[in-house]
Specification:
By secondary structure, this protein is mostly helical. About 75% of the residues lie in helices and about 0% in strands. It has two domains: about 1-60; about 60-325, no CATH class.
Length: about 325
């Protein structure tokens, strides 16, 4: 079913209006919240929504072409993603088992060092959390993000023979790399739940939020990949810059350290990183027993920034893709 341009703009504008109304009417009952800061957050959020609606209306064709192509090619995407995952380990005796061994070895080493040798723990609002569990719930989404972004960035370069084919929809290439990385992430998430169960944190209804946060991470990394994979074709050094940025990003994201130990000013700055929302979300789903909508502004901020990044990525990809074959 194809949606007309006017209907698409109207639907997006109504969604934006509804979201702005929800933000304005939201009341935070936390007595420690500064009313002025709360009002500033609401005004900034609504301003970004209005600006996004205006930009979307002006560049409707640029922003909708990519999602439509992905939906129409969904069966091809699934088939290519499975083949990409199998091809990665083709020729080895153990095949895809190697993808499963790495997370198990990683978790085992952290367990020996931080739990048995150092005996570390993290003091959270829910009590003392074993450090290995705290670390695992941070590493699971981070490993997924780094692998998906790295593979998605290099998707066009790896499948350059398909890029040169006039009839092939090259827009499916980044997403098949991300889906292939999702297979490994699913196993790693299961290992995370096993580690949590060992320490007495058994799955509950809150654990289902792992699917939500995984979807959040999938869309975020997809939005970034369409920008990076298009630019890296013309600027190959971008791949190395991303690797360095990921090294810095691991320390800028509360994976190895507890964000609750920082001053409120630093917390606000660090939460500008959308991965903070994801990492905290995984921990909330596993052992903190909190729903994603309880952190209202973080949820709104994440989706606003993700939609904006996806729109930028779609526009850049469409603008540059006509030159891909000439450069490769």
């Amino acid at each position: 079913m194809k949606i007309s341009k006017k209907a698409g703009i109207l639907i997006f504008s109504l969604l934006g209006l509804a979201l702005a109304m929800i933000i304005l009417l939201h009341q935070n009952n936390d007595p420690g919240v500064n009313p002025q800061q709360e009002l500033l957050k609401k005004l900034i959020s609504c301003s970004v929504i209005v600006a996004s609606c205006i930009v979307f209306a002006k560049g409707y064709d640029k922003f909708t072409t990519l999602p439509v192509e992905l939906f129409q090619s969904r069966h091809l995407i699934w088939k290519l993603a499975k083949n990409d995952f199998k091809k990665r380990y083709a020729g080895s005796y153990m095949g895809a088992v190697w993808a499963m061994i790495q997370p198990v070895v990683t978790i085992t080493m952290y367990y020996i060092v931080f739990d048995k040798i150092m005996g570390n723990s993290i003091n959270r609002g829910t009590g003392e959390i074993p450090y290995v569990l705290f670390l695992t719930t941070g590493l699971v989404p981070w490993f997924y993000f780094t692998e998906a972004l790295t593979n998605g960035t290099n998707a066009l370069l790896e499948y350059n023979y398909l890029v040169k084919k006039v009839v092939f929809k090259i827009s499916v290439l980044p997403i098949i790399k991300i889906i292939a990385a999702t297979f490994i992430h699913a196993f790693f998430a299961c290992v995370m739940l096993v580690v949590a169960a060992i320490y007495g944190y058994y799955p509950t209804v809150y654990t289902l939020q792992i699917f939500y946060y995984s979807a959040c991470l999938f869309i975020l990394v997809l939005a970034l990949s369409y920008t990076t994979c298009a630019i890296v074709v013309f600027f190959r050094d971008l791949a190395q810059i991303i690797n360095i940025a990921l090294q810095i990003g691991m320390w800028a994201t509360p994976i190895l350290w507890n964000i609750d130990t920082l001053s409120p000013r630093w917390v606000v700055i660090l939460k500008l990183n959308p991965l903070v929302y994801i990492v905290n979300g995984y921990r909330s789903a596993v052992y903190e027993k909190e729903w994603f909508f309880q952190d209202f502004f973080s949820t709104m901020y994440f989706w606003i920034i993700t939609v904006v990044l996806f729109g930028i990525g779609a526009a850049i990809f469409k603008r540059l893709k006509v030159h891909f074959a000439d450069v490769m």
